[in-house]
Amino acid sequence: MKLLTLNFLTCARRTCKTSPSSFPLHPREAELEILESELNLVFLRNILPRLMWSELRGIGEELGLPSLPESPPSREDLVTKPSPAKPSSVTEPSSVEEEGGEGEEVPSQTAKDLHRLLLETTIKEGKLVCGNCGHEYAVKEGVANFLLPGHLV
Amino acid sequence: MPEYLVRLVQVHESFRKAELQALAEITGVGLGFVLYDEESPFCIVNLPSDTAAQDVISRGILSHGIYELWGKGSTYDELHASVKDTSRNKWAAYHNLPFRFTIDSYRGSRTSSEQRTIIESFSYFGFVGPIRMRDADVSIKVFEDYDFKAKTPKQLFLGRFIAKSGRHAKTTYDLKKRHYISTTSMDAELALLTANIALAAPGKVFFDPFMGTGGFPLACAHYGAFVCGSDIDGRSIRGTGGSARRGQTGKMDVVGNFKQYGIEGHYLGAFISDLTNTPLRLPRLEDGTTTGGYLDGIVCDPPYGIREGLKVLGTREELGEIERQTHEDRYRDPNYIPPKKPYSFIAMLDDILAFAATTLVENGRLSMWMPIANDEDIEIMIPTHPCLEISSVCVQPFNKWSRRLLTYRRLPDSEVSQEGLQIAKKDYEKGIKADDLNGFRRKYFEGFKEQQKLKYEAGNFNGIGREF
Ligand SMILES: C[S@@+](CC[C@H](N)C(=O)[O-])C[C@H]1O[C@@H](n2cnc3c(N)ncnc32)[C@H](O)[C@@H]1O
Ligand SMILES: [Zn+2]
């Protein structure tokens, strides 16, 4: 499971859902694996405002990964600033924009770091622990099991 | 606005308009229907430009391609008059380019000499370029629409080819060639169609709470979405053939499917869970407000529970002290199986809607399949939720039953009635609803037993029927 999924997962117990400490789940004894994939700016842009930033930061720290900046980046931070505008005269302003604009955007280091953390870092084995009730959910072969035992449903 | 002819396929008719509308929405262009008939594969639409037409159709599953409309009529005389009237100023642009001229007769046929005569009747276009059956620069087509067994066509169109559809994906994702499937795997064509209707698109997040072997997430990832899913049955996710990790060969699992199509970068992962005890964040329930959805779309084929009985986590009777203790003592045992209890399909549908209402972003879509017995009383049953507006209903008819694809749009908060929202919230918190089988429901399920028999008789999937 890619680390991004931890941005969406809480404890499965109904009684924990209302408690803030049930999110995020805390990885324990986690065996991580890096699975490289192509960076996708459209996706990063879309997901950025949906990230629970401080919680994700916390998870990164618990896993001993390079730490994220304290405050979330903006969408603009995901691309490197274009080299200072060409001083060329105003001959064909619109056509230049149309052809040169999108597609050629260069992902910034911030985008690369986010991509590495959220989409290339995966949990292969380990446990996810609820901070509220302490229940442990096992992760095996990259698949977490959230089925609750009889006494916790 | 210019008119275009969409060459549709004549299958899954009731899905065709919904798909075109969805494709236009994904592309961000306005599309208007000028002519549409459930019985005909020729549909005329308004679109702003050739580029828009190409963008819309390039993902289409229920079409072959799109053409710039150069004329229409109910006889050849009318067609010629219309073509001269509408497209005269366009001919010159193709004057000396390699071209191709063909005829597409629906429910009719033409001998090759008839075809030649028809094509030559358009010689006033003045095309002098070479004729090329492959890679022509311009391709013109005459469309003939016949009534069943009629000798002459009732409708004629002429169009210039703009772009072909994305229907080839149906072959790429064909279940017969897929690495890992099960008896409930969704047909590739319908899964791709569902992904289109739910607006799966590059960079979006899609989820399937009943993923099985991953048919819907795969289809959504094909269109560029990032996907995840869950299922109460861990075996369906982890697959068969032993552990790939321990180096055993023949491992077949959902990840393997994503790898087969080269889209594993879009697979966020899967987890084992029961929708009624989901580990996903339910933002709006937590803080009582209605913001914070994070899924762009939810696509699913829920369990119907007719054959095996629909199950969710829990026990039929509330556990006593001793039983609770037994579970507590044993649950860490690797052989421990969490208890499950029967549940009603109707309640599950409500749960899906409530789940969608809290997790979808504004204007996000829920597309859910639902079987229906062909019975007037049942005809009207479409589950509702104050935060969700039905955006399309598509029907796949069978003999004694049918399947519907219900698609809902998550209303923006500003359009949701606060009153309705409070009711929905209370209902959800109450959890499991009364499960008594009233007459309505009984009828509903009886319809399915019937359908199950039919399935068996049809011998689908080695005679192992679906779960419902
Ligand atoms: C009709 S199948 C979906 C098949 C899937 N669309 C595919 O292409 O493979 C329904 C699935 O729902 C799962 N299921 C049944 N009850 C469930 C529950 N309470 N929560 C989550 N999944 C459940 C079943 O294990 C089954 O895999
Ligand atoms: Zn908990």
TrEMBL record, chain A:
GO biological process, one term: tRNA methylation
Gene3D superfamilies named among the record's database cross-references: 2.20.25.10
GO molecular function annotations of the record: protein heterodimerization activity
Ranges where the record places region Disordered: 62-111
InterPro entries found in the cross-reference section: Trm112, Trm112-like
Biased composition (Acidic residues): 95-105
Family per similarity comment: Belongs to the TRM112 family.
Protein name: Trm112p-domain-containing protein
Automatic annotation (TrEMBL), chain B:
A Pfam family of this chain: Tmrp11_N
UniProt KW keywords: Cytoplasm, Methyltransferase, RNA-binding, S-adenosyl-L-methionine, Transferase, tRNA processing, tRNA-binding
Enzyme class: transferase
Entry keyword annotation includes Transmembrane helix: no
Gene3D superfamilies: Vaccinia Virus protein VP39
Main location class: cytoplasm
PROSITE patterns given in the database record: N6_MTASE, SAM_MT_TRM11
Molecular function in Gene Ontology: tRNA (guanine(10)-N2)-methyltransferase activity; tRNA binding
Protein name, entry field: tRNA (guanine(10)-N(2))-methyltransferase
Taxon lineage: Eukaryota, Fungi, Dikarya, Ascomycota, Pezizomycotina
